[in-house]
Design a protein that fits this description.
- The chain has one domain: Alpha-Beta Barrel (TIM Barrel), CATH 3.20.20.
- It has an eight-stranded parallel beta sheet with strand order 7-6-5-4-3-2-1-8.
- With 278 residues, it is α/β, with parallel strands linked by helices.
């Protein structure tokens, strides 16, 4: 018996309907799942299926293509990005999904300033989430300074916390101990492995974000387990894994050759292997 429930992502890239994926995850042993969000996704259908299977719809991953616009002076783009996140919050609330995962920034070039207007926009998003009974977990990605600012300003709000992506910590955050920094705010996880930063000069790139199964990369899983225990995390262990290789990379190719049910089964085995360390 493990101390944490186990959760796995769904993905359009898996090549099966979300309904089929959710049923497979249930069959392989996962107690929970999360999905991406778009305004045309049938979130209510997936929420009903979760109840039918007695699974937990752990979270939705909010769209992140426009989050950099929230910090900019382009009012039209910023308003659209803000509305998209608020629409996602409303969808969570209407379907009794208590958590939205949000990026704070996207992009490797053209870094924008951390602006007061950006904080005001995020403040409105957090206010709306609180009114709707939805928690927001801000995830570590590229642009770590935006995450730091949001957690510094809003981290004491009862509906705001931190989502640790263990792979991003390695390939976007230069291996920093983010649990040592924000472990007291940890409310969600995206657990995965990779090979760190490939570029000899330390340039970060999307291509290094492999989302390998645990124990297939260079992560020290005993060290990570020690950090989890140190911060006292009691929540669901959520794994965010990728079946397909990034462009010009081949590390995930072996997963692509696996039938989806076999892949999910292997994901569950690796999830249990890590959970046994906690």
């Amino acid at each position: 018996m493990y101390k944490h429930l186990l959760c796995m992502n769904t993905s359009e890239a898996f090549g099966a309907s979300f309904e089929e994926q959710i049923a497979m995850l249930h069959k392989t042993g996962f107690e929970a799942f999360f999905t991406p969000w778009r305004n045309d996704y049938p979130i209510e259908k997936w929420a009903r299926l979760a109840k039918d299977l007695r699974m937990i719809y752990q979270s939705v991953h909010a769209p992140f293509g426009g989050v950099a616009d929230l910090w900019k002076n382009d009012g039209e783009k910023a308003a659209a990005a803000e509305k998209e996140l608020i629409d996602c919050i409303h969808s969570c609330s209407e379907n009794e999904i208590g958590l939205m995962i949000s990026h704070c920034y996207i992009g490797f070039d053209g870094i924008v300033d951390i602006t007061e207007q950006g904080l005001i926009r995020y403040g409105r998003i957090i206010d709306e989430a609180e009114k709707c009974g939805v928690n927001i977990a801000f995830e570590n990605t590229e642009g770590e300074e935006y995450l730091e600012k949001l957690l510094d300003v809003f981290g004491d709000r009862k509906n705001v916390g931190f989502c640790l992506d263990t792979g991003h910590e390695m390939c976007y955050n230069f291996g920093k101990d983010l649990l040592g920094k924000w472990g007291d705010k940890l409310i969600a996880t995206h657990i995965n492995d990779n090979l760190g930063i490939k570029d000899y000069n330390g340039q970060i790139t999307w291509h290094d974000d492999l989302h390998l199964l645990p124990f297939d990369g260079i992560r020290d899983w005993d060290e990570l387990a020690t950090r989890f225990k140190r911060c006292g995390y009691k929540g669901i262990l959520t794994f965010e894994l990728n079946k397909h290789s990034k462009p010009e990379r081949h590390e995930n190719d072996k997963y692509e050759r696996m039938p989806l049910l076999d892949y999910f089964t292997e994901c569950y085995i690796r999830a249990c292997r890590f959970a046994s360390k906690l």
